[in-house]
Amino acid sequence: MPAHPTAQGGGPGWANLGMDIVSVKRVRRLLDDHGEDFFQRMLNPGELDDCRTSSGLDLLSLCGRIAAKEAAFKTLRVRGRFLPWRDIVVRRSDGGWPLVELRRTAAEMAAESGIQDITVSISHDVDYAVAVAAPVLGDPRHRP
Amino acid sequence: MTDGLQQVKDWILKRHPERDDIPNDLDLIENRLIDSLSFVEFVFLLEQHSGRTIEMETLEVDSLRTLDAIEAAFFLAEVK
């Protein structure tokens, strides 16, 4: 078995999905214990702005964003590394759906796995947020 | 065990009350004592107790895999 399995490991057309679930309870505790600045370790300023409403940081949006990053990371099939939180950027598009941008370490991991891009979908309801991600296989140099 | 590592161990035990102890060679990742979400808080804690800045994006899993590895990487390493 290769030390660093690639996305194409299953043959033509094969793609490894990623999925994650995040508990609002856990994220609320982090927010209560460490404050909003703690999340700058996981999200870029623009991502945090996407999670704000007129009444402050929206916990479900925050959980959704965290789940999306983890789901995207799982598509990369990287062994021995932690999620490079701030290098997987999940922003809200004009249409409202999430867009993934891979930077630095995450972009290198994707290139090694033959992944050109990642598409992600987020859903949440009361206590949990979930996200599923699918890689777009191809040469990262030809990213649209 | 250094004081810093003992505080790290206490932090993990507090979040896993089903455990009485954590052997120094127990795989913290495989045994789900640290996951990707708690990892961020864990690094925050390590920075506080070791007095060192840790670059999360390039951190290797093996440096956090066991209490022994954590002690070697963050509490015993010579600061040059």
TrEMBL record, chain A:
<dbReference type="GO" id="GO:0006633">
    <property type="term" value="P:fatty acid biosynthetic process"/>
</dbReference>
<keyword id="KW-0275">Fatty acid biosynthesis</keyword>
<comment type="similarity">
    <text>Belongs to the P-Pant transferase superfamily. AcpS family.</text>
</comment>
<dbReference type="GO" id="GO:0005737">
    <property type="term" value="C:cytoplasm"/>
</dbReference>
<feature type="binding site">
    <location>
        <position position="20"/>
    </location>
    <ligand>
        <name>Mg(2+)</name>
    </ligand>
</feature>
<dbReference type="InterPro" id="IPR037143">
    <property type="entry name" value="4-PPantetheinyl_Trfase_dom_sf"/>
</dbReference>
<protein>
    <recommendedName>
        <fullName>Holo-[acyl-carrier-protein] synthase</fullName>
        <ecNumber>2.7.8.7</ecNumber>
    </recommendedName>
</protein>
<dbReference type="InterPro" id="IPR002582">
    <property type="entry name" value="ACPS"/>
</dbReference>
<keyword id="KW-0444">Lipid biosynthesis</keyword>
<dbReference type="InterPro" id="IPR004568">
    <property type="entry name" value="Ppantetheine-prot_Trfase_dom"/>
</dbReference>
<keyword id="KW-0276">Fatty acid metabolism</keyword>
<feature type="binding site">
    <location>
        <position position="70"/>
    </location>
    <ligand>
        <name>Mg(2+)</name>
    </ligand>
</feature>
<keyword id="KW-0460">Magnesium</keyword>
<dbReference type="InterPro" id="IPR008278">
    <property type="entry name" value="4-PPantetheinyl_Trfase_dom"/>
</dbReference>
<keyword id="KW-0443">Lipid metabolism</keyword>
<feature type="domain" description="4'-phosphopantetheinyl transferase">
    <location>
        <begin position="17"/>
        <end position="132"/>
    </location>
</feature>
<dbReference type="GO" id="GO:0008897">
    <property type="term" value="F:holo-[acyl-carrier-protein] synthase activity"/>
</dbReference>
<dbReference type="Pfam" id="PF01648">
    <property type="entry name" value="ACPS"/>
</dbReference>
<keyword id="KW-0479">Metal-binding</keyword>
<keyword id="KW-0808">Transferase</keyword>
<keyword id="KW-0963">Cytoplasm</keyword>
<dbReference type="GO" id="GO:0000287">
    <property type="term" value="F:magnesium ion binding"/>
</dbReference>
TrEMBL record, chain B:
<dbReference type="InterPro" id="IPR009081">
    <property type="entry name" value="PP-bd_ACP"/>
</dbReference>
<protein>
    <submittedName>
        <fullName>Acyl carrier protein</fullName>
    </submittedName>
</protein>
<feature type="domain" description="Carrier">
    <location>
        <begin position="1"/>
        <end position="78"/>
    </location>
</feature>
<dbReference type="InterPro" id="IPR036736">
    <property type="entry name" value="ACP-like_sf"/>
</dbReference>
